[in-house]
Amino acid sequence: MGVQVLAILLVVLLGDSIGDAATNPYDFSAITGLMNDWQNKLPNWVGTDPCGDAWDGIGCTNSRITSITPSSMGLTGSLSGDIGQLSELQILDLSYNKGLTRSLPKQIGNLMKLTHLILVGCGFSGQIPDSIGSLQNLVHLSLNSNRFSGLIPPTIGNLSRLYWLDLADNHLSGSIPVSNGSNPGLDMLLHTKHFHFGQNQLSGTIPSQLFSSGMHLIRVIFDKNQLTGSIPSTLGLVQSLEVVCFDRNSLSGAVPGNLNNLTSVQELLLSNNRLTGPLPNLAGMSALNCLDLSNNSFDATDFPSWIPTLQSLTTLELERTQVRGVLPVILFSIFSLQSVVLKNNQLNGTLDIGTSHSNQLKLIDLQTNFIDDFKQSTGGSSIEVILIDNPVCRKTEAAGQSFCTIPQSNTSYSTPPNNCIPAVCNSNQTSSPNCKCSYPYTGTLAFGAPSFSGLENSTYFEILASSMMISFQSYQLPVDSVSLSDPCKDSSDYLELILAVFPSEGVSFNRIGIDSIGFVLSNQTYEPPKLFGPFYFIADQYTYFAAEVQVPTTSKKSSNIGVIVGALAGGFVLLSLLALVGVYAFRQKKRTEKATVQSNPFVNSDPNKSSGDIPQLKGARRFSLEELKKYTNNFSEANEIGSGGYGKVYRGTLPTGTLVAIKRAQQGSMQGGIEFKNEIELLSRVHHKNLVSLVGFCFEQGEQLLVYEFLPNGSLKESLSGKSGIRLDWARRLKVAIGAARGLAYLHELANPPIIHRDIKSTNILLDDHLNAKVADFGLSKPMGERERGHVTTQVKGTMGYLDPEYYMTQQLTKKSDVYSFGVLMLELLTARRPIEWGRYIVREVRVLMNKDKDLYNLQGILDPAIGMGTSLKGLERFVELAMRCVEESGADRPTMGEVVKEIENIMVFAGLNPFEGRISDHFGQLRGV
């Protein structure tokens, strides 16, 4: 505060010197206080007159600062309490400055004229201050994609003018606040049109009081939280609703019958909950585009007759909802229908899509049903029909039919050139759709509820790009063109696209241009076509600003002879000192080189040569740290997909659009440089479809990073725990077991030299998009040299519960140590329990309970119910016996991994599955895929 008081005093005391300054002295004091806590300040933030000198990102009305909007400027630091002194401030937008961290000051509540508070994609954390409820003029509140935690402030209910409320993608917890007596709550926001609370940790029930007929809500988004209880019937009173998302919670009970009163709703997403009762009748929802009720526990029912009446329907998803019977032909004649997903149900009879089906229909996915025939229509070749694991695909004549295989998805897309030849650009520049080289402003666009299903149809993205250009031009922004690329679905089923905005003048934007574009996107001024639904944008930091105007400096010749003489004398002394230092430096050179190689074994790397100091890589690439920061949005929390003792794992997107998983070691867990190099060399020479592939690595600035192929379905642990939302029945667990076993057998028996993994566990078994298992994390792996016959004497490493007791006692590591860990993994597949849980060891538990004279060997009490207890578990007893052989105390009594693979293949055949294609079938050899 001393600096700010001094600034005010200077303004007052200097009088004539700065008396003509345009900026109010108190506002200048406040902005000075803010800048004291910010690093990477903008170049023209100098002087004492932000308004008169037109500081970038600072807007004024007369002498008062009324807007602060330096978005995407790379600011770092915190937001100090000085913000509260800007009494005339109306707009505060600091979006996309990821380096702005810590909590919001309570003084934010002093900004009584504030209408827009937008902090999208920053790094703020801590609780949202209650004082935010004092901002009576606030219209737009966006705090999404930060790290805010704690409760939702009930005082937000006091913001009677609020139109937009977005707190999504944070760490907010606790219940949804509603009013109680004199205490405010969200139910008081009668004029708010947007409730965005998705991707948090909210818990408790949805209060019935939250909704009422007096509300004007358009979008209610609470996806991916921890909400329980039932959906309140009061939701059906909000007639203005267009988007309702409660998917990925733990909601239970029946869906309210009055939801069909919501005749304006276009997207209704209730999937991945625990809803029960009858499938709701939504016949009155004539505007419905996208309906997803998948993965709930509704009562078994015939396919609803009201669904074909929804003539606006584009996407229908009722996976695992116990729908049965024959699909009516009329369903496929809905004019706008694009996608029908009814996997894992009880549909039967003949599938007939008729001859008058929608021209937009692209996908009919009926995997794992009881359909025994398919009547193909003429002209329907463009429709992907998937009938894997249906009786129709077990017929001999079905062999080779496209509907009995998994289609290969091709979602690559990039805005094409606009009738021109793409330019050849310099490093870091990109050719725009108008074939001009420049530095685009980039980031990720994410859409929560698009009403179309397929990502292959470029028409939708052309419409989106066109609408963005129209919007930018309407606001007279310096934009030449926009490009969209790499469409994909993230783990929350959001549609993500890479957006690149190209400048209309020169090769880069100036700060005003970036500021203006960022505000249009963060403020939601731009409205995408309705078929895309609600969106958010996370920008990359822009570092290619148009060159600042440089003020030439003047130099003067000095006639001071004393200065010249002094310089000459100083130079002589300096040369003498350098000669003495040179001798010492030469001696130190060898020591330094040796130490450098120890700390960075890649320091002398030359990819065109081969030597003992250079990692012998086969297909793995060396990335720079800056590249990996760019691909992960600076290792943003939004891209974090896992963590462990080694460090964190981030999702990244390469320039080619390829998704990768980037494992970043935390400082305390990093191994030595030589060991890190050895691990990379080991990974780069093992290649098998059941091993996670190494894409590349980074070793610089004290960082150790490994870049792997990206596996979209996460780890086996996540599926067994229910975290991923993927249900693993008996057949799928056998498929996982055979994949992991084959990967491990390759390491033991085909790698040269053989490799012992040493850390087999469920978190190190990853699943691809077809649930094929891949062994990952070779940080503890140990090659066996020619001299090491049978075992390697080494320090004991591994994970408790999976650790071979013989290895633990003798410190002699063998291939059978991996076999033991794999046996524990097999028991985990059966029980979904951790190896050691509540002090109980799963190996011992099974040994005590196991009784071969009883059904399922007397293990019903500890089997995972999700395995399919009500269905046939053929081969389970043999699976248990194999697992127990793997965990014998003596390694000599355990099978080899090759023998384990053979036995699991035999078990799959016995269970009616095809182990060689990894496909589920009731009769081995008669089915093409799952």
Topology:
Elements: H1 2-14, H2 25-36, E1 38-39, E2 58-61, E3 64-68, E4 76-77, E5 91-93, E6 99-102, E7 116-118, E8 123-127, E9 140-142, E10 147-150, E11 164-166, E12 171-174, E13 194-196, E14 201-205, E15 219-221, E16 226-228, E17 243-245, E18 252-253, E19 267-269, E20 274-275, E21 290-292, E22 301-302, E23 315-317, E24 323-325, E25 339-341, E26 346-352, E27 363-365, E28 370-375, E29 384-386, E30 430-431, E31 437-438, E32 441-447, H3 458-474, E33 479-489, E34 495-503, H4 511-522, E35 535-539, H5 561-599, E36 621-622, H6 625-631, E37 640-643, E38 647-653, E39 659-665, H7 673-684, E40 694-700, E41 703-709, H8 716-721, H9 730-749, E42 755-756, E43 765-767, E44 773-775, E45 782-783, E46 792-793, H10 805-810, E47 812-813, H11 815-831, E48 836-837, E49 840-841, H12 842-849, H13 876-886, H14 897-910
Parallel strand pairs: 3-5, 4-6, 5-7, 6-8, 7-9, 8-10, 9-11, 10-12, 11-13, 12-14, 13-15, 14-16, 15-17, 17-19, 18-20, 19-21, 21-23, 22-24, 23-25, 24-26, 25-27, 26-28, 27-29, 36-40
Antiparallel strand pairs: 1-4, 2-3, 30-31, 32-34, 32-35, 33-34, 37-38, 38-39, 39-41, 40-41, 42-45, 43-44, 46-47, 48-49
Helix pairs in contact: 1-2, 9-11, 9-14, 11-13, 13-14
